[in-house]
Amino acid sequence: QVQLVESGGGLVQAGDSLRLSCAASVRTFSAYAMGWFRQAPGKERDFVAAISRYSGSLDYADSVKGRFTISRDNAKNTVYLQMNSLKPEDTAVYYCAAEGVYRSGWPPKQYDYWGQGTQVTVSS
Length: 124
Fold this sequence. Notes:
- The protein is mainly beta.
- The chain contains no helices and eleven strands.
- The protein has strands at residues 3-7, 10-13, 18-25, 34-39, 45-51, 58-60, 68-73, 78-83, 92-98, 113-114, 118-123.
- The strands form two sheets. Strands 2, 4, 5, 6, 9, 10 and 11 form a seven-stranded mixed β-sheet that branches. Strands 1-3-8-7 form a four-stranded antiparallel β-sheet, with no helix packed on it.
- The mean pLDDT is 96.
């Protein structure tokens, strides 16, 4: 069982920064690859960023590369998404996800556990 709770969303202006947090309730957090996804109104859920188990590798969507940074603190069972230079098109509900027990490779192809999401709204 893996429970994920996102926090840190809010309303910001274009160019601002925001850091999202995802707290995981799991005994072996470091063994899970973690990811961030987002879903804008009327659109599909899209991949944003991923970090491998033990923080060895990073992967980003082209739309956020150079602006967003995913990181994890295994001692705190928390994964972060640092979002800089935010744009209105970044507006979405952001979801934290964990790959699951059985690995799907790198970058992960599937995630088994999802948080409830946190709203990020970027005004122009």
